[in-house]
Amino acid sequence: MDVDAVSAALLRTAIRDQQASRRMDPGDPVAELRATVRALARAGGVRIRTGMVDDVLVVVRADADVWHESASQMREKLVPPRPPTSTRGA
Fold it and tell me: Residue 7 in contact with residue 57, Cβ under 8 Å?
């Protein structure tokens, strides 16, 4: 995984859409991604928050509308749906 490219993409999306998320796999460099996104945001003067929701890394602008939502609504908006599971051969 290209940490710099993924971090930059997450930040660009969060700036544009107020939030960004990416599902993480075991072994992905989550701490490094979070630190890199925060460093890029700080350098660009953008206030963000990063965190994990289950296996999803989320990046949210500090001024995002989602902060005014309930916890359940926020979670629903931040976590992308799981891809469908194939039932072929079952």
Answer: no
Give the Cα separation of 2 and 7 in Å (integer).
Answer: 8
- Are the CB atoms for 79 and 90 separated by under 8 Å? no
Give per-10-residue mean pLDDT for the chain (90 aa).
96 94 94 97 96 91 78 67 56
Give me 28's structure tokens: 């992905």
Could you tell me if 82 and 53 are in contact, meaning their C-beta atoms sit under 8 angstroms apart? Answer: no
Which amino acid is residue 47, in one-letter code?
Answer: R
Enter the tokens of residue 87.
């039932």
CA–CA gap between residue 70 and residue 31 (Å, rounded)? 27
* 11, 40 contact by CB (below 8 A): yes
